[in-house]
Inverse folding.
């Protein structure tokens, strides 16, 4: 059955980790781009 | 003077890219089974997920054999040495164009953070995914009029562990893809994993010298390519 592996804690935690990762990557890459431009 | 070194062997690259493809495929189809997306339909998704999981297990057997016979497993022994310097590099140094605190060599391809993360992946996450996946597939299904099973109370904890592992793997893949761009150039790490060749350290690199002498690795000047 679809969705039998649904668990609210895992779902929230899992999506939270993925969103946090995307947020971290975005911030890090923006900082990398802006600091490399400044150096140039 | 930087040397272009054959650092990633053919099997290593085959294993890496096949594993990547299988994990992408298993994750996409897995989330269809989970109910997050719809593409193949539930029944087909289960069928494809099972087939891809068998391919993944076969690949794992070959990879374990290769790592053990070549001694490459030693690359993944975690260490706390330089871990603070490594963290500082990614948190601040990278923005100041600071040099990477760990020099990559043939005998030590991974930095301390990679060693720790890959060790956790190989020893914990992948085995948990494989075992929970096998239990998921063979847990108490009707078979020839009877119920065959593993005498586990419920499928739910297995399913939840498998799903939690899938979320962790997706987070790992996202970070892995991003960190791939933090090499000497944006694409140097990608090129190295595609071709096997990477520019490393200097001429006096002891590992390169050791392997060159023992004939285990092909070492050439950067200018040799042109």
């Amino acid at each position: 059955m679809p969705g039998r592996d649904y668990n609210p804690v895992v779902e929230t935690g899992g999506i939270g980790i993925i969103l946090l990762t995307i947020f971290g990557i975005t911030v890090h890459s923006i900082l990398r781009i802006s600091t490399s431009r400044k150096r140039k | 003077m930087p040397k272009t070194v054959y650092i990633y062997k053919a099997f290593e690259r085959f294993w890496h890219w096949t594993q990547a493809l299988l994990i992408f495929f298993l994750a996409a189809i897995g989330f269809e089974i989970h109910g997050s997306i719809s593409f193949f339909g539930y029944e087909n998704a289960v069928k494809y997920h099972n087939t891809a999981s068998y391919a993944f297990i076969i690949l794992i057997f070959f990879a374990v054999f290769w790592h053990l016979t070549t001694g490459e497993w030693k690359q993944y022994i975690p260490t706390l040495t330089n871990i603070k310097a490594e963290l500082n590099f990614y948190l601040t140094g990278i923005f100041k164009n600071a040099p990477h605190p760990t020099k990559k060599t043939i005998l030590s391809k991974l930095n301390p953070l990679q060693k720790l993360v890959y060790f956790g992946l190989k020893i914990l996450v992948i085995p948990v995914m494989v075992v929970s996946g096998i239990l998921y597939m063979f847990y108490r299904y009707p078979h020839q009029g009877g119920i065959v099973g593993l005498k586990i109370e419920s499928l739910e904890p297995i399913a939840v562990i498998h799903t939690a592992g899938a979320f962790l793997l997706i987070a790992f893949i996202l970070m892995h893809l991003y960190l791939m761009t933090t090499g000497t150039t944006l694409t140097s790490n990608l090129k190295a994993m595609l071709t096997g060749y990477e520019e490393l350290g200097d001429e006096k690199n002891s590992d390169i010298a050791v392997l060159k002498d023992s004939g285990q690795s092909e070492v050439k000047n950067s200018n040799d390519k042109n």
